[in-house]
Amino acid sequence: MKSIDVIGVVGAGAMGRGIAQIAAQAGIRVRLFDVQPQAVDSARESLQAVWRRLVDKGRMSVEDAEASLERVAPCSDMQELADVDLVVEAIVERLDVKCDLFAKLEGIVGPDCILASNTSSLSITAIAAACKNPGRVVGYHFFNPVPLMKVVEVIDGARSEARHGDALMALARRMGHTPVRAKDMPGFIVNHGGRGMNIEGLKTAQECVAPFHVIDAIMREQAGFRMGPFELMDLTGLDVSHPVMESIYQQFYDEPRFRPSPITALRVAGGILGRKTGEGFYRYAEGQKVVEQEAAAPAYPEGLSVWIAPYHSAGHRRAAALLREMGVEPATSEQPPRDALIVVTPYGEDTASVVAEYQLDGSRTVALDTFFGLEAGKRRVIMCSAATAPRWRDAAHALFARDGTPVSVIADSAGFVGQRIVATIINVACDIAQQGVATPEDVDLAISLGLGYPGGGPLSLGDSLGAAQLLDVLRGMQRTTGDMRYRSSLWLQRRVQLGMSLRDVPATAEN
Predict the structure, then answer these.
(1) What is the pLDDT of residue 290?
(2) Choosing from 68, 118, 120, 198, which is the catalytic residue?
(3) Which CATH architecture has domain 192-290?
């Protein structure tokens, strides 16, 4: 395997500085170049300040900080990269500019030098096409901030030589990062896998199911994610997120699963980008998010009769157990009593569909999301159809908040909020594995480290929630909406049929 002792970094912005930092800290010599010489000087000053802070915090010795800074050599001419072992490009995200750079680099560096791009969304194969020796061009996608985001994607283009990717995998480990291997596909692993959260969150909001802050609260407090889609997009900035959404949708030839929303297009046009502009899906006062106060639950109506529909066995069992824990005995009749709250527990369907199928009284019917469990303290979600009367909506809210657990009341939606977003996330991850973009292990590793999703990654999360139940959710959503975005990945479908884990690799792939 090729030894990498000296690397060139082209681009002295945030990404280039971060790559230079972790390389220098690992004892690797770095030559830092930018077309603007002052950017290189600024980057070295920034790195010096970073290492000084690490020394002050006791995380680095003075000697190590000084040695790291000495390893970062500023370059005023790209010719100074002639004898490096690797060049990592971290410049503007434009294919024509990157291709031009790589063609120039090939005329400067030695024949054994690896050329790597830190692109997040452009094709490695397309970049390599600008080179006479495309086999040495590999993707090396770090995440910002590089020192803190400990995952890096190593991407093999259609003509990349595997040995060069192997060398970058080893280098990543040497620099204290976790490498994952991907083949060249739009979005690679992390940006590909991240489509489900944001795009389905936007679709949910576009259907007026719930306000942005309620969708986020459900994803955090019911589904267990660190952030909801709108908090995440505000943090990233729509000037970054929206073009990626459009690019991946177009690169997959209008795949319905990745269909963007006009919500973000309108906000980008208006400059409402998120934290960086002080206003996004939330307002920010002195850098702090302003969140609407949640309304208190209505008073519990004493003597309330409740009938839980038996049409979904798992949901019925969970809902009945919760009511009994709260001291409410549900009616046991085959049909709902004349003046009882009707509670249905669908997976993937909306309230209206269940009301129509079973000829229920729509004015008294609400849906309860039981998919994620109903334990005290975990946010509960009830869903009303257009026919649900306010009296019964409020009764259901009061009932399910009786033990002090927060409750979100949403409008009718195929798959509530949590079901539809989480099922979409896992379905997209399944399709990444189905397309052979990465191994199931690397899919989980990349997405859990790159996006901070819970459960050890989306495939592991799918196993813990139940692959068969997720398939029920997706089929219910597709049946209700007729939208092909909810068709199940064959990876998911076949593993349910065969009783396999979503992380299992086909036996044929192992031989």
Answers:
(1) 92
(2) 120
(3) Orthogonal Bundle (1.10)
